[in-house]
Amino acid sequence: MHPVTAAVIDDITASPSPYHAVQTAAARLQAAGFTEVDLTDAVPSGPSRGYAVLDGAIIAWLDPETVGPDTGFRIVGAHTDSPNLRVGAHPDVGSDGFRQVAIEVYGGVLANSWLDRDLGLSGRLVLADGSMPLVRIDEPWFRVPQLAIHLDREIRSDGLKLDPATHLTPVFGLGEPTEGALIDAAAEAAGVDAAEVRAWDLMFHDVQPPTVVGPDADLLASARIDNQVSCFAAIAALAAADPAELAATAVVVLSDHEEVGSASATGAGGALLEHLMERLSAAAGIDRPAHLQRLAGSVVVSADGAHATHPNYAARHRPEHPIRLNGGVVIKRNANQRYATDGRAEGFARRAIETAGVDAQIYIHRNDLPCGSTIGPITATRLGVPTVDLGVAQLGMHSARELCGTDDIADLAAVLGAAWTVD
To answer: pLDDT tens-digit profile of 215-269?
Structure first.
């Protein structure tokens, strides 16, 4: 197995929730010599190599050897969250002899992909003292059973129809629901006293590990490819960066809540990134007017999954824009700004791609289908900085288990690393 493929499998396996994804990224950064800076503390003065964490978001930076008003930022953004099923505020429910867990649907879930899967539980608890221990249960304790075809004959003619209010409630064993049972289990897994739990952010995940598939081992099947592959590539590129080669201050921002619109304190629609960037300038002795000057010379690379041409649904794609797995990094464009890429930003991306020595593809959505979006347009709006949206091609986007090409992961990391060095 290619070392990059093995590493991304390790990262995804270690990251069943956004909070775990941040923990995984922080561990890789620490191993590369980055120092954590608490957001309530001052950013160290002078060129630095650091990172800061807020809940499900992490921002890391690496300065070149000298920093001044002419030193721009090269920002790589991705997101830590994926569509899933999340635990409700009153989780212990049940019916007809089954214990179940009340859920909320998070993001644009392909609901059918969550049926008949062995599910674990992950996220965090909030304790009375304000601490927030992480929770991870990889045992197959939960399952959403599908209705037998004998009781749903219309599925053959009408397709599967799922009501998220009634059909996606996981089973949690047999018996009558017991108040506090789920949180008791979560607290035990976290090694804390359930009586100290005051709140939680918990979600379900598929316990089947990522795997390389195909006779040529050229495909990766996994949960959360969207967008933990981009998170992995961004952190790997930053950890390998050399300050002597940087054309600007290199920044990675892994935001939360992209799948629900990014409007949160830790989402790309919030002020976390721009506040920290201004603090980095201040630590380098750069005042606000000069900081804005730095922004004017900056570029954002928004890294997120791209739609590959589906062999069973080729008519859903533009024939002049075939997108292949292992066909190269995908640049995404949309005239209506669902992706932020314009000619200037695409030109920058192509210079980085050429420097990395990998192939490129360009994706444009069909005119008769609504186009999804990502953090690129939001970040461009917040910062006023040229932005390119690009990423790894995949199938099954927003499924509980997605598919991408193994070669594309290393290619993306190479392109993101080149983005910090090209003019």
So the answer is: 999 999 999 999 999 999 999 999 999 999 999 999 999 999 999 999 999 999 9
> Helix H segments across 47-199?
155-158, 181-190
- Nearest alpha carbon to residue 56 among 240, 293, 231: 231
Sequence-ordered list of residues with C-beta below 8 angstroms from that of 22, at least 6 positions apart, any chain: 53, 55, 56, 57, 58, 80, 254
Count Cβ atoms below 10 Å from residue 128 Cβ, excluding itself.
10
* Percent of the chain topping pLDDT 90: 98
CA-nearest of 201, 406, 384, 195 to 296 is 384
Here the tokens at position 261 are 């619109």
Distance CA 60, CA 250 (A): 8
pTM to 2 decimal places:
0.97
Domains of the chain: 3-82+223-419 (3.40.630.10), 84-206 (2.30.250.10)
φ/ψ bin of 19: left (φ > 0), alpha (ψ from -120 to 50), beta (otherwise): alpha
